[in-house]
Amino acid sequence: MNIDLQQLMDAAKEFGKAGGDSTLNYFNSSFDLEFKGDQSPVTNADRESESIIRKLIKKHFLGHGIIGEEFGAENEDSEVVWVLDPIDGTQSFIHGVPLYTTLIGILINNEPKVGMIYAPATGELVAAAQGLGCYLNGEKCRVRECKNLSDATFLSTEVTTFDTYGFIKPFEKLLDETRIHRTWGDAYGHMLVATGRADVMIDPILNLWDAAALMPVITEAGGSFTDLDGKPTIKTGNGLSCNTLLKETILTIFSDK
Hints:
There is one protein chain. By secondary structure, the chain is an alpha+beta fold. The chain has two domains: 5-140, Fructose-1,6-Bisphosphatase, subunit A, domain 1 (Fructose-1,6-Bisphosphatase, Chain A, domain 1); 149-254, D-Maltodextrin-Binding Protein, domain 2. The chain contains nine helices and 15 strands. Strands 4-3-5-6-7-8-9-10 form an eight-stranded mixed beta sheet, sandwiched between helices. The model has no long low-confidence stretch (mean pLDDT 95).
């Protein structure tokens, strides 16, 4: 199969924007709220957004696989697989906080090559493809060249998950060593790292649909995306986004649990 990464990135932007914009019909308005078996929230806005994106993929890329948070996997053994999170940060969405995003990652031969993060309520769209760079609303963007943790802005989604997944000791050390910590989290936090507005974003727990878009975005912005053991992967259930100058220092801290 002849694969055009520019075409896929452009399509991810178009499809992600269509799905993401549909959530604005419900944001700070009425929506149906349910809780899954793991007590994570889901709304009709999540499902409508994913349905829109799936229909567009099937219309324009017949034979491509799809893995989505809400509707599962189709043709997942395809050479090209789209990984969808229609609303990343549903807790933000249901509380009327605009820092939720729509995520699309594209795997080629099981490796993440294209990523798109769209924040519908703020109008920010970041997209990247391997070898083509990373762009915020069409303008090239990069991570900030912060050399010292004492100057770094550290983001996370929650605090309690560091304790739940056995990372509370390194988390507290990182709190002590960084300039400031804020929970401007979920994928929006990774977007802030990619666009040079924060320096470190850590998620102790990530699903495939949370992570697939992140690696292409962060690496094409000149940064590093790894798990907390330093492996460049989207499949081990956690993730660290930062610049390459801070990477080893942070991983050293997390090696001492």
